[in-house]
Amino acid sequence: MKKLLFALFGLLVITSCSKEHEPLPTPQVSIEAPAGTDPTQPIALTLGGTLTLKAVSANTDEATYLWEVNNEQVGQAQEYTFTATELGNYIVNVTVFNAEGTGNTVGCEVTVYGPYHTGTFILNEGNFTSVPSSLIFIGDDGQVTESVYTKANPTRKLGITAQDMCFFGGKAYILTQNGKKAEGFDGYLTVTNAETMTYVTDYTNDEFSDLSAPTHLAVVSADKAYIRDGRAIYVADLKNRKLNGKIAGSEGALKIKMVNTGSKVYAAAGSKLLVIDPASDAVTKTIDLPGTSSGIVLGKDGNVWSSCAGTPSYMVQILTATDAIGVKNEVKDINLSGGWVPSIGLCASKTDNVLYFWKDESPDWSHYDYPIYKHDCTTGKTEKFISLSETAKDGNYLIYGGMGVHPLTNQLFVNSIKGYGTDYLTNSIHSFSNQGKLVKTYSDKTSFPAGVFFKTE
User: Fold this and answer.
1) By CB neighbour count within 10 A (0-12 exposed, 13-18 middle, 19+ buried), where does 24 fall?
2) Side-chain-side CA neighbours of residue 161 (13 Å)
3) In this model, does residue 6 exceed pLDDT 50?
């Protein structure tokens, strides 16, 4: 009997010791983020912002923590606050250890953007001879930042009479017609960081001395851009800071924004459309149009569309795969001529297969009437979209500096002024839904607007 009791006691001791040395379970870990933020998806953060994350672990009584950002140790508390000090992509990992040092890791992705990551840019000419150009930014939250370039670069001024703006490789390129006309102004072309608008470089009037009042720009690589002036389209060698002459056959290119598809650049020249190959800087094809072009844009369908003035007028589709004319929609009862202004502000939606343009139907110089029309590329139907005098009713009905459709929100942005002379100081930026409903008006922000631009295009 004693032997049996001793054996049972020994078995209990062995069983007890076995349980005491059984490994602790591996922590189950997750990251808790602020309300409205899903840590399992990439998190967007604006430069200067902060993000507080918390490690949550189950079945771990004596947990310890290790936070890392891009494999660099940054914290050992349960919570960690990430501060967005530089642009870029970051992987934030936390490892939770149990009392025996066994750990489990979970992470999240954070992308830091600049304050001008997505939204609407309004470029302003300013006074033609003396007042510097300026840039306005309207965030997708509706907040307006005026004098963006000056705020980012307090000691600098854009060149005189801004005309065009485009984006390439994380940079913004701003072209001015007169460049540096006085000390302290940038030259013909200014390059900034696209997210922060901080100055990268500018190209002086002396470096681009062959230019005469340039108006439009297409950046085809980090080292090369095409610049249109009143004589032809020039090749700008951005790396070596010089012009490499004119593109043969580009003489007579119109004062209309070029279209850059990445593999080709399209430019209007009267009733012809020039197709330029960035690899050879040569016009590889000339497309005959059924009238003088008053605007070219890249449509939702990925093809180029040109408004062609004449009787009748047409909206013409150019198939980018073959450079052949596809659809040719007649526009009845409207001559798609820009009049003394070559452009009719043609712009395209990126979500609807439609184009917008304005038409000067003013009875005289004292009363302006610039209705906006909408062309359905699928049905070929053109109809009046809005009239500022009927919809906005603020007295600023002279559309100036083109229009643009936000590629994400699908809102149409329109710049208008009360008139010329000092009346340009009374002005509006309007945004409209694709149904023609006035969304918002921003009053007295512009200074002869040169156009509407979007980084996300």
Assistant:
1) middle
2) 15
3) no
What residue has token string 């062959």? 210
For tokens 């001559």, name the residue.
Answer: 335
Residues 6+ apart with CB under 8 A from 425: 444, 447
User: Are the C-beta atoms of 281 and 235 separated by less than 8 Å?
Assistant: yes
Tokens of 88: 């870029």
Instruction: Count CB atoms within 10 A of the CB of residue 76.
Output: 10
- Tokens standing for residue 81: 């606050």
Neighbours of 86 (CB within 10 A): 8
The CA-CA-CA angle for residues 72, 77, 82, to 5°, reads 55
User: Which sign does the torsion angle of CA 73, 75, 79, 84 carry?
Assistant: negative
For 82-114, write each residue's pLDDT tens digit: 999 999 999 999 999 999 999 999 999 999 999
Q: Which residues pair with 297 in a beta bridge?
A: 305
Q: Which of 409, 437, 419 is nearest to 428 (CA)?
A: 419
> With b meaning 16 or more CB within 10 Å and e meaning fewer, what string describes 211-249?
beebbbbbbbeeebbbbbbeebbbbbebeeeebeebbeb
- Helix ranges (DSSP H) in 125-207: 148-152
pTM of the model: 0.90
Contact call for residues 350 and 457 (beta carbons, < 8 A)? yes
* DSSP conformation letters of 271-285: TEEEEEETTTTEEEE
**Residue 424 per-residue DSSP state:** G
CA gap 449, 79 in Å, rounded: 48
Residue pLDDT, tens place only, 421-455 = 889 999 999 999 999 999 999 999 999 999 999 99
Which residues are CB-neighbours of 371 under 8 A, at least 6 positions away?
358, 359, 361, 384, 385, 386, 387, 388
Q: What is the largest CA-CA distance in the chain?
A: 123
| Cβ atoms of 178 and 159 closer than 8 Å | yes
Q: Whats the size of the chain, residue-wise?
A: 457
Among residues 227, 209, 213, 310, the alpha carbon closest in space to that of 267 is found at 227
Name residue, tokens 């060698």.
237
Which residues are registered as beta bridge partners of 269?
Answer: 272
Name beta bridge partners: 124.
134, 449
